[in-house]
User: Fold this.
Amino acid sequence: MFGAPAGAGVKLSLDQAKACVSKMTALLEEPANVELMEKAKATAGDDVMQYMMVVLPCACGIMAPVLAEFGFSADQAGAMMLVQSLEEHKADPEISEKAKAMKAKFIPEQLQAMLAMTMGLGPK
Assistant:
């Protein structure tokens, strides 16, 4: 009756994961996108719910082309599936470092653990 969502079951090879994280990082570093993210973060402040409603959708919108390129839906669900796919490669130092740096661009350290728990990703 219901099909699997886009991105369900997508497995990234190590090379694909590295390319994906590099492309997303490049998008987040573009000046126009930095400005968008700063505005979204200023709107959200330190409110976790505001982050989920304002900042995460903004980040997903910026990263949508890369999410789609690698077979994930271009939305928050796709981003969560991507994070789960990247978890398989967290032992790789390059993936670990780039993923941490990327996350730091849109989630302040003081909110990371709470957001991870809220999104069902467990403590980080």
